[in-house]
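Page 42, continued from yesterday. The earlier attempt failed because a stray header line got pasted into the input along with the sequence. Redoing it now with the clean sequence only.
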Amino acid sequence: MRRRRWTGAAVTCVATALALVHVLRPDLSIDSTAVALLVIALVPWMGDLFHSIELPGGARLEYRRLEERIGAAEERATRLDQQVDGAAATARVALAAAGSPDPEGWEGTGGDASWAAGTLERLVTEYAQVRERMPSSSLRTARQERIFGEMLKVVPHVPGFDADTMLASEEPGERLAALARLYVEPDPTKLEALLDATAREELPFLMYWCANTTDRLLSGTAADTYSVPVGLVRRLRTRLAEVPDGSDRARFLRRVLRHLDPSGPRPAAGG
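This time it went through. Structure tokens are written below.
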């Protein structure tokens, strides 16, 4: 609305200036070419004042519609960039798990369970140190992804892994370890615990992997979505409203909510 008022004021000022020029200098001739060029210069700025202009011969220039199409194309491009970024994050972690050497000391242990537990404890501590010592940046995210990738290789060998307790832990590294275990071994019986963790997680990196892991579980298993408490679904919707709309966290949260309630509100195309 403000832009429309400014545009109208600008057009009025230009028209008034031309009228004054005509009164003060009646001998000044303005040919049709000059008038046409002036109109061409003004018309694009008048898109807020009219939807279209009809030219001789019936041709119609629809500025408002063209502007809307350009805006829609830019939004689609932005959503595509966001999806590529999310896929890249998952791919980087997968490469860290599959392409990196086995965690230090693995060879010669024969997959010893106590060694696996010790290695996981080291990774949990390393994650806490990275968060404490490094400022938020792409470099810190890369370190966190590497740690998560190593956890993916270790957690299957840790016996008696209590995912519920780890998900509820105050230590972010332990919560990340629980997500690694459930990412590698999706367990439908842990759906509600994962959803609860997703709804209350405050750390962006962990929340992303909460939602990502939950979506993976819902997409690849026959988890019972009908038994999920309505209150928990409401908490997830509230959480969705609190995160940046274009973020990977929001995209995976919307996917999770579609699994839980296919008839619920739909996100914009590409979400």
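Notes: The chain has a mean pLDDT of 76.
Reminder to self: strip header lines before submitting.
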